[in-house]
Design goal:
260 residues, 69% helix, globular
């Protein structure tokens, strides 16, 4: 498991497309949403600034790394090395777990670089170094669970559907399930299965959109409200747990699929 993780980590970090794609999204985000970015940076509240930054990162960057990871597991079969790896004494489950941890660690590196780079720049410019503590909390409770969730499904689903089709479906799912207001159409937004971390941001970190609008919990008249229990610290931890359980189930399915 450790060997597989180290191999995948080194290989992904040397992959130029990883850095280029995430870098392009960061630049486009800064250019297209320059007004919103300036508003975030100018906030006097370090907590609000770091949480707003985490929300921006978690809405856009998973689109890039989810698509990048779509071929990591099926690649072994396409190159014809899967049977060779299966003949080694290493357990298939250990190799899969190592591959998963390795690719998740690899995509976490540029995400962390972009986010903590922003946090350090803000802290130095404003003199509010409490922002670094809030950045660490947001990274652990919001950004990292999203990486683990997306990484699991990006490895598993392409075993069932072609990787190009998965990328198309994933991009559509991401913006449908995370960005659309629930009272406009059925969506998973504001629910406990929302990977952008609505519940933890709101209930564990105290995030509110300008005007006090909530981003988690039931929405009057919206469909799928059964996935939106009342927002409390308990349901916030439940949301993190549900995402991790779903990731584990996806990996378990991926471990069975190749053998079949």
């Amino acid at each position: 498991m450790i060997t597989a993780a180290r191999y995948e980590l080194r290989m992904m970090l040397r992959k130029r497309s990883l850095w280029v794609s995430l870098g392009v999204i960061v630049v486009l985000l800064a250019a297209v949403g320059s007004q919103q970015v300036r508003e975030v940076i100018r906030q006097d509240d370090p907590k609000g600034t770091m949480l707003s930054g985490a929300l921006l990162v978690n809405i856009f960057l998973p689109v890039a790394y989810g698509c990048l990871l779509a071929d990591r597991l099926v690649r072994d079969h396409r190159l014809g090395v899967a049977a060779i790896l299966d003949a080694t004494p290493a357990s298939p489950v250990a190799r899969l777990t190592g591959k998963y941890l390795g690719v998740c660690a690899a995509v976490t590196a540029p995400v962390a670089l972009a986010y903590f780079g922003f946090a350090v720049a803000y802290a130095i410019a404003s003199g509010r170094f409490a922002a670094l503590g809030w950045a660490l909390a947001a990274f652990a409770l919001v950004l990292l669970p999203a990486v683990l969730f997306v990484g699991a499904f990006a490895l598993a689903v392409p075993l069932v559907v072609p990787a190009p089709l998965f990328r198309v479906l994933f991009v559509g799912y991401w913006f449908w399930g995370n960005s659309i207001t629930p009272d406009t159409m059925p969506t998973l937004a504001h629910s406990i299965v929302t990977p952008i971390g609505s519940y933890p941001m709101q209930e564990l970190l105290g995030f509110r959109i300008r005007g006090g609008e909530t981003i988690a919990g039931p929405v009057p008249g919206a469909a799928l409200n059964f996935l939106r229990p009342e927002a409390t610290p308990v349901t916030a931890w439940l949301s993190i747990g549900v995402l991790l359980v779903l990731a584990a189930l996806a990996l378990a399915a991926a471990s069975v699929r190749p053998r079949r």
